[in-house]
Backbone:
């Protein structure tokens, strides 16, 4: 019998190596509809975009992005979900090992009457001490082990590991989203500062025009129509300033919230105007297949597919027998020193097999297969959406820079025309309507140039994010301990391998 107890667990080891269900195989880029080259012109070399904001050469932008990456509340939630996924993996891996539990106890038995000693109180009352008591000490150890003959436990661990990795990539996706939103609002704030400067500069010129028109009306050189036109134009320009200020304050407030601070936290720091960040003239987008490795949302979708595939094996394993082994060792003695004198134990191996369940187990297999089909379609859709994001950003950047070049020419021409018109109006060589038109064209060209520069910077940010910039794509992010110092975030370190998980 002792020999059998040793051989029975060993005999189950070869059986435990069998895992039903499909083995996951990552899809090739061609299977996902990924072309060899982009359909729009771009450099095919691959750049390191881990800290793409440094390419704008704006220290304030870099500071804000880094502060948001360490303090943003959405990122903190993603880190919490990552911790949960990590603990889910730990719990799944625990099923690969036996469960041990111990017990101990003490019991005191007393004979309250008879057979004991007695004594008489001064008042003549006889008290029986009830002697003859006994002690009982027990100590036990029990163990149970779910063998998982057909790999249901290993498939469960495989699914949990894939879900944990997907949570890491989801964290990276949130990180990229927050970084890009901070950068976009920073560009917007600088663009609104420039538009406010344009409006105030134009307003100063229109104040001069209104004064000149007033003098010419008083001198009888022109009718009061010129003065009314000048007053109307000035009021319309002045009316745009409060709206621009409101939009600027909203952008600054958004930056404050994104960095987990009060909305007005950065008003003083951003008050001094700075140019709109420009960034490099060229960006190498690499090849389309690079997006499968660089984009965290694509990698999260791939890990979700791997988890769904593993769940098919979990569901299929329920169709086959399940083996569990339990054992216990117990001892009982009247004193602690005698606990090892008499030891008893038992071993039980049980095999269970579902016979009839109304098709529920097979339905679960089909449901898991359907979930895998859904995950595969979602993976393909995420890949194609990533490719679309990249190409749209490339085209948007080229378009914004082309408009910037044309608006620079338009601004130069409009500025020259406005100077000539102002000089001619003062000399009485042209009417006020012509001056008004030229100065309106100048303001429009100024704002057009500002908007084109803002659009170029925003498109460049979108391109960096579309390419998966903003995180270390060489490692899977994992969560720090809960008691990590304030401001720390998920650190990019490798996840446990399958060998380590077993």
Residues:
């Amino acid at each position: 019998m002792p020999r059998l107890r040793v051989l029975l667990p060993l005999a189950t080891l070869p059986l435990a190596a069998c895992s039903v269900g499909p083995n996951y195989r990552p899809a090739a880029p061609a299977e996902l509809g990924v072309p060899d080259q982009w359909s729009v012109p771009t450099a095919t070399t691959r750049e390191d975009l881990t800290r793409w904001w440094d390419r704008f050469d704006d220290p304030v932008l870099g500071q804000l992005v880094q502060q948001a990456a360490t303090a943003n509340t959405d990122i903190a939630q993603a880190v919490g979900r990552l911790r949960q996924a990590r603990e889910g993996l730990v719990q799944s891996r625990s099923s690969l090992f036996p469960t041990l539990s111990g017990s101990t106890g003490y019991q005191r038995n007393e004979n309250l009457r008879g057979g004991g000693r007695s004594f008489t109180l001064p008042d003549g009352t006889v008290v029986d001490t009830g002697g003859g008591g006994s002690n009982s000490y027990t100590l036990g150890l029990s163990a149970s082990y779910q063998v998982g003959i057909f790999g249901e436990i290993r498939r469960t661990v495989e699914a949990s590991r894939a879900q944990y990795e997907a949570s890491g990539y989801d964290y990276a996706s949130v990180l990229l989203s927050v970084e890009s939103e901070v950068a976009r609002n920073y560009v917007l704030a600088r663009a609104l500062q420039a538009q406010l400067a344009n409006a105030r500069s134009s307003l100063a010129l229109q104040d001069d025009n209104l004064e000149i028109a007033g003098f010419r009306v008083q001198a009888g050189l022109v009718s009061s129509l010129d003065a009314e036109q000048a007053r109307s134009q000035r009021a319309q320009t002045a009316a745009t300033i409060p709206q621009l200020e409101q939009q600027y304050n909203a952008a600054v407030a958004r930056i404050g919230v994104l960095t987990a601070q009060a909305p007005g936290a950065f008003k003083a720091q951003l008050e001094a105007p700075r140019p709109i960040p420009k960034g490099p003239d060229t960006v190498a987008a690499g090849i389309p297949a690079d997006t499968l490795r660089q984009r965290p949302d694509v990698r999260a979708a791939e890990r979700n597919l791997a988890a769904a595939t593993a769940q098919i094996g979990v569901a299929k394993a329920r169709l086959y027998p399940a083996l569990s082994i339990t054992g216990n060792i117990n001892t009982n003695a009247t004193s602690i020193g005698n606990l090892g004198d008499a030891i008893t134990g038992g071993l039980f191996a049980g095999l269970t097999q579902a016979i009839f369940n109304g098709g529920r187990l097979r339905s679960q297999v089909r449901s898991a297969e359907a979930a895998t089909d859904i995950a595969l379609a979602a993976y393909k859709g995420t890949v194609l959406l990533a490719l679309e994001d990249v190409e749209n950003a490339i085209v948007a950047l080229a378009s914004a820079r082309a408009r910037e070049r044309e608006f620079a020419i338009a601004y130069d021409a409009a500025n020259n025309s406005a100077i000539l018109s102002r000089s001619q109006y003062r000399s009485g060589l042209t009417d006020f309507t012509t001056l008004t038109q030229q100065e309106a064209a100048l303001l429009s060209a100024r704002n057009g140039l500002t908007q084109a520069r803002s659009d170029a910077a925003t498109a460049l940010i979108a391109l960096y994010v579309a390419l998966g910039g903003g995180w270390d794509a060489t490692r899977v992010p994992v969560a720090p301990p809960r008691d990590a110092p304030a401001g720390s975030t998920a650190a990019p370190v490798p996840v446990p391998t399958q060998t380590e998980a077993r």
User: Anything to note?
Assistant: The beta strands are 99-109, 118-120, 126-128, 134-146, 322-333, 343-352, 477-478, 491-492. Confidence is low (pLDDT under 50) at residues 1-16, 485-502. Residues 17 and 151 are 7 Å apart (CA to CA).
